[in-house]
Specification:
Elements lengths: L4 E8 L18 H17 L5 E9 L7 H14 L1 E12 L6 H9 L4 E7 L3 H6 L6 H14 L2 E8 L6 H13 L4 E6 L7 H7 L8 H17 L3 E4 L2 E3 L6 H7 L4 E4 L4 E4 L2 E5 L3 H5 L3 E5 L2 H14 L4 E2 H6 L10 H6 L3 E4 L2 E4 L7 H9 L1
Parallel strand pairs: 1-2, 1-9, 2-3, 3-4, 4-5, 5-6
Antiparallel strand pairs: 6-8, 7-8, 10-11, 11-12, 13-15, 14-15
Helix pairs in contact: 1-2, 2-3, 6-8, 11-14
Amino acid sequence: MKNKDISIYIHIPFCEQKCNYCAFNSFCASDEIKEKYINLLCDEIRRRKCDKVVRTIYIGGGTPSVLTGEQIKKIVGTLFENFDVYEDAEFTIEANPNSITEQLLQTWKSLRINRLSIGVQSLNDKTLKKIGRLHNKKMALEKIKLARKYFDNVSADLIVGLENESGKDLCGYAKQLLALGVKHISCYLLEVYENTKIFQMTKEGKYKPLDDDQTIQAFNKLSNYLCDNGMERYEISNFAFPGYESRHNLNYWARGEYLGFGLSAHSFVGGKRFKNSESLKDYELGKIEEEILTNQEQIEEIIMLGLRCNSGVDLLEVKKLGYDLTKNSYFDEYIAKGILMQNGEKVFLNPIFYHISNTVIANLFQ
């Protein structure tokens, strides 16, 4: 991105039903609360307008597709009135299969939205019911097919590590998604957070996620399948056909600037990080937490984000901040073992070792 470019994230915290694994800031709400929130969101967009040009927009949640076409129109209209947006900007909206309609798809298309991210998670009806999803396999496939009538760039999410979901099962799901023309697949490892229903279910023995070894095995099988079928693993959890990588997420990983609007949304501008309040009451008051990263925190962030992606870490970038990564006590060992790969001033994490990325990255901070 150019220095004058920026990305924009808009958070819609509403859901029809909280999924059993979800720990995000999302909740069910009345029509009245939704309208109030949209007005607050539009006020925030007007208040924080700037002269930067928007390269990517991402409407996430929650479930943005629970909003009506008119409500999305109001938000997008306010955004376009207050920010300059490139004609070829990538514009993504998240959606769940059960709330996608042809009318919504037509409205989104008319608003210059050009990328859909659909929360599939699984294509097994028993699994979907157990994790609290409102769609089944048939609905998911039908809605993806419908979405492809209007959008070329469709992404789908899958969760790895769910009960009784083997690598073979996941490859089967991926095969069906690719057959429908899905261009991007995000594969997230199941994380069991304490404040979720699935945590309680697991604790009571009513749910049994895959163990760590089974999860890694399933992920590797899925990863190999996707790569064998023309996708590239351009980030630890993300696969895409060439040219269909998420430009919005790539900007995050490259530490580009972005503005976040809405409840609990994050921003990064001028080396400073901002976070909106997680409570609706405080958000209404315009409360924002500000954080200025220390030199060490910037170094750690560059290494962490770079090694998650196939773009790697720029050694000169961290050297400018006073840290020579090649002098780290683990560096030569990791190079010798093939865990890290070096090409000139770039260092990459070997995809074979993505499953131990957290350990490798933490060791490289020392």
